Prior knowledge:
Helices cover 26% and strands 26% of the residues. It contains 10 helices and 17 strands. Strands 3, 6, 7, 8, 9, 16 and 17 form a 7-stranded mixed beta sheet that branches. Helix 4 crosses helix 5 (155-165) and helix 4 (127-140) packs across helix 9.
Amino acid sequence: MYKATACWHLSQHTSSLQEAVILPNEQQNCLIRSLYSLVSTGTERLVASGKVPPAVYTEMQVPYMEGSFSFPVKYGYSLVGRVEEGPASLLHRTVHLLHPHQDLCFVNPQDVFVVPDQIPPQRAILASNLETALNAVWDAQVSIGDSVVVVGFGIIGSLTARLLQLLPAVQVAVLELDPTRSRLAEAMGFTLANPEEDHFDIAFHTSGSAEGLQACLDKVGAEGKVIEVSWYGDQPVTLQLGGSFHHGRKQLISSQVSHLPVHRLARWDFIRRKAVVFELLKLPVFDQHITKTIPFQELPTLFDALRTGSLSELCWSVAYPEKEVKTI
Length: 328
């Protein structure tokens, strides 16, 4: 048996690091020592604030989550670590998996994905969010030469913009009202959209606000598509649809990472999609998307800040202290 520390949300106001004894079982016999995890600020802020609607409790559960959304709950879904015990094929390998923020854990070997040697462990934490961005690009069916706007330059928006930038002859613009993030988008090589002008073929919405979604609907041209990637929890959304939405025959399409686009189902599965994500993460440019790293001990303080407002960092990486793995 081992002693592990995990981040728990005890209420809509409080998070804490909690210790517990962990044991292997017949299925979960692969011991992972955590190196880094990623805080997906949009979803995890809503979870930590108690804003998950009861109607979607089942759909919002993630692997190895404990507790419930009515608190206390242990939640998170992008962790990179090193295998300390388990099958010989995985031993001492760096792996990625869906798991809450925890420094040591036993998991099913089938739930881990070996990180290619060319990818630094910290960059690998982007895998889960990059899957979301890739799925959104697939849902949009972007074509060569399209003009595209990404509204909201958080972690999902920035990764979506990066994927679009890699496509030939696709013109990508970013619309972000937060001045810090807007300057960061420019520094990372993205063109800023004019808030008052421009009409686009496709818009991706990732800001999590009704205002951002309205901007997307207003900024696509006739027959244009809006891909909604944001998740609002229990927050209501009010839109003005009396303008160009109907007579322009505009489309509003939801994108969700847990479902592959229907036009890919015949040939694709989640494993193949994950493999593509790790091919993409071999590009060093993705390091630009990790803008802040904090020690694991400070994670509850970060969630306190997330509950009270939006922070300007794109990505919060959690670094775990090196520790000797020993039984108790």
